[in-house]
Amino acid sequence: MATTRSPFIVLMGLIAVAFLPLLVMWVAVTDVGTFAYFAGFALYFLVAHLALPGWVYLDATGRGSDSAIGWTAFNFFVPFVGFVAYYFLGRPDAPYEAGADAGLR
Question: Does this model's pTM top 0.90?
Answer without folding.
Answer: no
